[in-house]
Write a structure and sequence with these properties.
The structure is a homodimer of 330-residue chains. With 330 residues, chain A is an alpha/beta fold. The first copy, chain A, has a single domain (7-324), classed as Alpha-Beta Barrel (TIM Barrel). The first copy, chain A, has eleven helices and nine strands. In chain A, α6 (158-167) runs parallel beside α7 (191-199). The longest helix of chain A has 19 residues, at 306-324. The two termini of chain A are 32 Å apart. The model of chain A has no long low-confidence stretch (mean pLDDT 96). At the A-B interface, α5 of A face α5 of B.
Amino acid sequence: MAHPSLYVDALQYNNWSEEVFKQINAGGLSAIHVTICYHEDFQEMVQNVIDWNRRFEDYDDLIFLGKTADDVRTAKAQGRTAIFFGYQNCSPIEDNIGLVEICHQLGARFMQLTYNNQSLLGTGCYEANDPGITRMGKQVIKEMNRVGLVVDMSHSAERSTMEAIEISERPIAITHANPVFWHAALRNKSNEVLKALGESGGMLGFSMYPHHLKGKSDCTLESFCTMIADTADVMGIENIGIGSDLCQNQPDSVVEWMRNGTWTRDRDFGEGTASAAGFPAQPDWFKDNRDFSNLESGLRSVGMSEKDVAAVMGENWLRFFESSFGPVNA
Amino acid sequence: MAHPSLYVDALQYNNWSEEVFKQINAGGLSAIHVTICYHEDFQEMVQNVIDWNRRFEDYDDLIFLGKTADDVRTAKAQGRTAIFFGYQNCSPIEDNIGLVEICHQLGARFMQLTYNNQSLLGTGCYEANDPGITRMGKQVIKEMNRVGLVVDMSHSAERSTMEAIEISERPIAITHANPVFWHAALRNKSNEVLKALGESGGMLGFSMYPHHLKGKSDCTLESFCTMIADTADVMGIENIGIGSDLCQNQPDSVVEWMRNGTWTRDRDFGEGTASAAGFPAQPDWFKDNRDFSNLESGLRSVGMSEKDVAAVMGENWLRFFESSFGPVNA
């Protein structure tokens, strides 16, 4: 193996291709949580699974469907990458709690309770008001806990996030976001959320999507890695990892669709603006999966111990996967 | 015509049959707003339209699909009944604002923004917290206003209802509910809502579903009609009508489905209780559509003028239909 360390990324949504899978392999990623839903309903999500099944057939020397923590170890040993499915919205379960288990059976391991807007389960970070987890949301969290589908609050509003941490009987995740103390943004998280997440055994994945970065596309590796070390002080070194939010090779029409779906006739610019509506440029130290080793070097450069670097780069997510993806008593 | 007065009922959800249609005809109803959706998504709602299309074929001497106020006049002249479609939930538009116009094209004339729970658009009356109309809700109200689909807040929570009245550029309806001042219930409405509704030109339909009645199944006709007269004092005689919420011949499994749909694994009893989970018995003065004339007599008995009785029994709804079901400039 070219990379002795275990690398796990808890969020990517690339325009998938042989080129990207080869970069993932070259970068030494053993596991990636990939988004297979932003606005899709159940049947549309199933089509995305079908598309992935074809990729698993075509590139089985590089990737395979990950279901358990053991699959990460297998991937590491074989020099391949385990692909774990997740949803950035609860739209695939529609209004049917029975679909929670069906989605798990089809491979889903993470589900956000909300994207940016109000959902049937909770409130997204772009709503003006956040009443917390709904009646259906409480039912669905219980069912997600039962089957081993991780609650992800990356795009949720503050109160809903605090309530999800409280209501969920298993640790939850914020797979891709950064702390507000470093860069104030609707998508980033307060110290209160970070502390509650850490105390409950949950995980935060650090995002390298420029709108979440201090200085955006000009953010430095040193600033990013210093922020990671500072966040460890807030919520614990064992509760943090990477969740890059890499959206490689996607046309701007994709971020337009992410923001607007089919819910509005006005045009919503989300984290962008009318004059800068597209995907922002990645910082030069994280262009694609081959740059994961830059993060490892960067963490060392800010004085993090080898053990802590390994924890952040992959071991923490592996431990979280181990305890999260099956029934409680399995 | 057996009935000189115009009768319009703004909400029924019966177990439809030849027997019921004959009672509707015998009762002299010229228009009924029927519910064709509680939890259905778009395609499931379309199947309900298909079922109604068969009924319109089979019983065209008694009923036909109503689309405009003129259809009510036609029905009255022909001794038939115009059936207007409505949804008690926004589930048929899923997360697609383009489906608002499609639903109108398929005959829908009323759509509740919420049933009892939080929806993508607003908050239902059984939620603990009500943050008001959502981002998507504001977009959808604008689109409903454009095409002539009436916003119905019968099952919505207080703040969402007040905001819908404020945001909607056309008068809205609460098709089936009663005032809290008469009978306190989560489904009944505060004087604040009633006043805002009246001042905006909106309509309230009085419900005879026993859980909404003072004394429930034992409610007297006199008490009900006195309440109607008192409500006229609060919100204006021109803004009230009947919305009986008649659910005739339905098995108890239907009310169980209304309450629980597929959103919960626990059992929700809604307005009922574990020991009285089924449909409650109708008051003896309103068993089916043949009892509409009892309401007319009852209103006269509490001293209401002939003109006001006619307004409540049907003329108010006819005027509201006239101004609500088409584009604004039609």
